[in-house]
Amino acid sequence: MNSPKYSILITNYNTVDTIEESLRSILNQIDERFEVIVVDNASTDGSQDYLYKMEYLNKIRLFTESCSRGQGRQIALDKSWGDYIIAYFDMDDVYKPRLKEFVDLYHKSYEGKILGAKVLMAPRTFAIRIGWHDLKEREDVDFWLRASSRYNIARLPEDFLVKYRGVTNYPLVKSIKKRLIKYIEGYRLGLKQSLLIDPRIQPKLWKSIGIAGLLGISWLIVRFIGKFYWVSIINPKAFDEVRQYDYKRIRWEKQ
After folding, report:
1. What is the pLDDT of residue 180?
2. DSSP structure class, residue 108
3. Is 250 helix (H, G, I), strand (E, B) or coil?
4. Domain residue spans in the chain?
5. For residue 22, how far is the Cα from the chain centroid?
6. For residues 38 and 235, what is the distance between their CA atoms, to the nearest angstrom?
7. Range 1-166 has CATH code 3.30.70.590
């Protein structure tokens, strides 16, 4: 039986100060089972020159395109050939030498799910069915919302793979990511798209009411026998699904 292949997907834009250390922290821990695909969004700071060098050395497959972040992610996915997708790596972060451990853990405990730990791992067929939309921002929020409505999701601590260095280390950004988990839960429980918190999906509603109002209207938090049920006023069947939480990971399972 042939070993599965893995596609590591990266998008880049103007990260000349960090890209060399960041990319090498990935390249130094992979073998022939892995390919690295980088889509550069017409960088102008010199980081593209470094990527051309890595491409010449056959370290990466490079594609340059003036595009949104969402479109860049989709281009990388379309160009990939791996059985599994590992995405998306930011070039302002340094990555711990635990990538193979991450892959082994996925096959041992999370096969058939989407596993998140700052980056995500999933079968390529899953990623293709979901895809990334042509968005300049919040493209990953959009992806996770749609992914959570179709597949089981498991989550590891974000520092499992990543040694933060970029903007992702800011407390505000971390708090936003915690909110994203709540949004995904609400989406899985049947929340109508017109009430989702993503301002791209419903900009007029977002501007007129704001996040506090939307949260109050969309769902209530009810604690029952030690578990949290996310209840959508719009969908009384929300009780059919339960959020199960443990200290190491978050996952959703139908009861």
Report:
1. 54
2. I
3. strand
4. 1-166, 170-255
5. 18
6. 41
7. no
